[in-house]
């Protein structure tokens, strides 16, 4: 058994960034920028008015100016403006040659072609050319792109974005007892559940998961499932990873050439975790218990997928919160406890059995107890992983 941190390091050593592909900007949200990109233009490309009003070369309170034209967004004024003159202007319009400020319309009285300036603000109300960014301004990679980045990339006129290809993940669940949701289970059967939870988790992470047919608890069936792995970057098996009579994953993966990196991690839930390299892919064998599989998804698969997406290898992000009730001392394994976080602090659920998905469903945090963590009191600060 190795500690969680060592297992993560071993996983990072196995995880290879996927290749780079170009996607249209409209599809780039949630993807990871793979190469530095630079602005193709300057923004604003011209000095632009920040307000509706009158562009003037100079004005003081009481100035009377002649309006000689108009500059609207998309339709600038071609001429130039001299002392004693003004141009009607609107937000986003280019400021005409010869003007130094925009007097807002609220500060002006208009009478035919004439305006009287009633007040002059200290600011110019002009957005200078390049005030936002200049041609060549860089966005560095890697970077997980969100909506704000997409807006900036669009303004920079970057219509195609180089991103890391989504890691292809093949999910293999194992067990004679499993049927798919929607099927009618036999009297001894249950529904394959964590397979679907993991599929959702992987999709959210930016991977491209694929469910392979459920492997039954015999070598031929499991071999068949492995034969469908195809060009996956990551193969995830679920269940069949302990040493029971029917636990065939280690045996069959070994026969297929798995170069095992580790087997068993000192954690609760999720001890029988296995990983290694399998041909061109990386393999992670998850425990079958539904909560163990999902917790291992958050603790191990999420950082692995992020590393495959070219992001800095790092454990799942943790935060800290005060306990709402005392906790008993922890045993020798790192414990990930389902808990509910609110403004009052974090409440660890009483029932922590690794088969209880309803408790996971009610949780929005996993409180992390280090090995041999002493008993904790109400108000003590503990680490948690937000769910
Ligand atoms: P195993 O590791 O195969 O011994 O499985 C441990 C427990 O998890 C057993 O109770 C299995 O029925 C259950 N289990 C295994 N795979 C799944 C799955 N994909 N969905 C739900 N439960 C599962
Ligand atoms: Mg099984």
Summarize this structure as a short list of keywords or feature phrases:
387 residues, alpha+beta, Molybdenum Cofactor Biosythetic Enzyme, Chain A, Molybdopterin biosynthesis moea protein, domain 2, Molybdopterin biosynthesis moeA protein, domain 3, 4 domains, 6-stranded mixed β-sheet, 7 helices, 28 strands, 30% strand, elongated, binds adenosine monophosphate, binds magnesium ion
Provide a short characterization of the protein structure.
It is built from seven helices and 28 strands. By secondary structure, it is an alpha+beta fold.
Structure explained in plain terms:
- The strands form 8 sheets. A 6-stranded mixed β-sheet has the order 8-5-7-6-10-9, with no helix packed on it. A 6-stranded mixed β-sheet has the order 18-15-19-23-22-20, sandwiched between helices. Strands 21, 24, 25, 26, 27 and 28 form a 6-stranded mixed β-sheet that branches.
- Helix 1 (4-14) packs across helix 6, helix 3 packs parallel to helix 6 and helix 4 (219-227) packs across helix 5.
- It has 4 domains: 4-17 and 165-308, Molybdenum Cofactor Biosythetic Enzyme, Chain A; 20-43 and 131-164, Molybdopterin biosynthesis moea protein, domain 2, CATH 3.90.105; 48-127, Beta Complex (Molybdopterin biosynthesis moeA protein, domain 3), CATH 2.170.190; 319-386, Beta-clip, CATH 2.40.340.
- It has 387 residues and is of the alpha+beta class.
- Helices cover 19% and strands 30% of the residues.
- The protein has helices spanning 4-14, 147-155, 194-205, 219-227, 249-255, 290-308, 357-362; strands at residues 20-24, 32-33, 37-38, 48-49, 53-56, 64-71, 85-89, 101-104, 108-111, 114-117, 126-127, 138-139, 143-144, 160-164, 168-173, 178-179, 190-191, 208-211, 234-238, 259-263, 267-268, 274-278, 281-286, 319-322, 334-342, 345-348, 365-369, 381-386.
- It starts with a helix and ends with a strand.
- The protein is elongated and about 95 Å long.
- The protein contains 7 helices and 28 strands.
- Adenosine monophosphate binds next to helix 3.
- Residues 173-175, 177-178, 190, 192-195, 238-242, 244, 287-290 line the site of adenosine monophosphate.
